[in-house]
């Protein structure tokens, strides 16, 4: 029998010189930290001070073309200018945003993987889904709210003319006359777009067949193409098709009218007594994996706030129906917590559920 050869361990004579060389290149402040934190703590401090030293990934949990994607792509070049590194958009779709959010939740907490989260991924889904792959509170470090937007109830313009749908009341009449005849598109199960439609159905006693897509982009394409009839889309992603006359806006889902569409009433205003109190708006914000150094989180928030306050950029978003924000991480954390409580009640009232 042949036995494996055993060799005596050798001494690595380069270890001590390498350590002395590494310490000798530290700034004085970090050299002092070494005495308190040890080499590992000093390396972490050095990593924070040099962040970002490579491209940063922003995971968008929905397909290209929707509001989540549009806002992420609007912010990326602003962050690139601020930090001198590329901010790359990575669309990871599925399960109402849960697939992309879970990727970020399980990524290293080093500032190089961020999430453009939504009211769905961090406000609705925990109440809607029986099982969640991540904890929207414990698994993330909130950075900042980028923007809030109303949803807009839109129908295919050509079909609206054929069915004589001019307003919300007309739509309710047609839907009640033929239950299940109308198809309702959404950007995915559990999104505010889906839940706004479910809330509308429950409050009006109507029934439309729900077709979830992997984002607003593909859903809007089918709505414009006539394969779908209605959608409660985020206003920024629907705006272009509304202006082009391909979609007819019946109402916005916010409590007040949108300055971007001042002639379009709210659902409550247009729907009559059965829709009193109807409100289902959306929001979008940046988050990092839990444990991401606060210094990195704060730097990103400050640069996002600065970009959103710039007049040209702010006006661009407002023209699309978005309301820019830029609040602090602590304020964003409070918003997320309050949204959990609000949407849990809405989900329960609507009866919506996803396995």
Structure description:
Helices cover 47% and strands 17% of the residues. It is α/β, with parallel strands linked by helices and 355 residues long. A 6-stranded mixed beta sheet has the order 2-1-3-10-4-11, sandwiched between helices. Helix 3 (67-83) links the parallel strand 1 (56-60) and strand 2. It is globular. Mean pLDDT is 88; it is low at 1-26.
The secondary-structure element order is HHEHEHEHEEHHEHEHEHEHEHHEH
Number of strands: 11
* Number of continuous helical runs: 14
Gap from first CA to last CA: 58 Å
Q: Can you give the mean pLDDT? A: 88
Strand order of the largest sheet: 2-1-3-10-4-11
What would a concise description of this structure say?
The protein has 355 residues and is α/β, with parallel strands linked by helices.
Q: What is the element layout, followed by pairings?
A:
Blueprint: H1 15-24, H2 28-50, E1 56-60, H3 67-83, E2 87-91, H4 98-105, E3 113-118, H5 119-128, E4 140-149, E5 151-156, H6 157-162, H7 168-177, E6 183-186, H8 192-204, E7 209-212, H9 216-225, E8 230-234, H10 235-243, E9 247-252, H11 267-271, E10 282-289, H12 294-309, H13 311-319, E11 323-324, H14 329-350
Parallel strand pairs: 1-2, 1-3, 6-7, 6-8
Antiparallel strand pairs: 3-10, 4-10, 4-11, 5-8, 5-9
Which structural traits does this protein have?
14 helices, globular, 47% helix, 355 residues, 5-stranded mixed β-sheet, 11 strands, alpha/beta
């Amino acid at each position: 029998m042949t036995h494996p050869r055993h060799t005596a361990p050798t001494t690595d004579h380069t270890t001590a010189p390498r350590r002395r060389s590494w310490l000798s290149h530290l700034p004085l402040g970090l050299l002092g930290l070494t005495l308190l934190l040890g080499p590992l703590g000093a390396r972490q401090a050095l990593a924070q001070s040099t962040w970002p030293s490579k491209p940063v990934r922003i995971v968008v949990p929905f397909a290209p073309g929707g509001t989540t994607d549009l806002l992420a792509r609007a912010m990326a070049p602003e962050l690139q200018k601020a930090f001198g590194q590329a901010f790359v958009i990575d669309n990871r779709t599925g399960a109402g945003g849960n697939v992309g959010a879970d990727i970020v939740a399980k990524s290293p907490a080093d500032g190089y993987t961020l999430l453009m989260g939504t009211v769905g991924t961090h406000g609705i889904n925990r109440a809607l889904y029986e099982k969640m792959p991540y904890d929207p509170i414990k698994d993330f470090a909130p950075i900042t709210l980028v923007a809030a937007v109303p949803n807009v109830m839109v129908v295919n313009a050509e079909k609206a003319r054929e069915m004589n749908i001019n307003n919300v009341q007309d739509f309710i009449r047609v839907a009640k006359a033929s239950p299940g005849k109308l198809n309702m598109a959404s950007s995915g199960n559990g999104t505010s777009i889906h839940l706004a439609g479910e809330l509308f159905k429950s409050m009006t006693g109507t029934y439309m067949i729900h077709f979830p897509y992997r984002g607003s982009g593909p859903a809007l394409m089918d709505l414009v193409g006539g394969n779908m009839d209605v959608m409660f889309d985020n206003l920024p992603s629907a705006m272009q098709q509304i202006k082009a006359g391909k979609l007819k806006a019946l109402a916005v889902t916010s409590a007040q009218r949108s300055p971007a569409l001042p002639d379009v009433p709210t659902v409550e205003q247009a729907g009559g007594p059965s829709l009193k109190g109807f409100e289902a708006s959306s929001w979008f914000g940046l988050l990092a994996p839990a444990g991401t150094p606060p210094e990195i989180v704060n730097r990103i928030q400050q640069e996002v706030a600065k970009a959103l306050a710039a007049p040209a950029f702010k006006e661009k978003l407002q023209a699309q129906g978005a309301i820019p924000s830029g609040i602090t991480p602590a304020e964003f954390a409070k918003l997320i917590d309050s949204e959990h409580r609000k949407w849990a009640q809405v989900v329960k009232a609507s009866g919506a559920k996803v396995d």
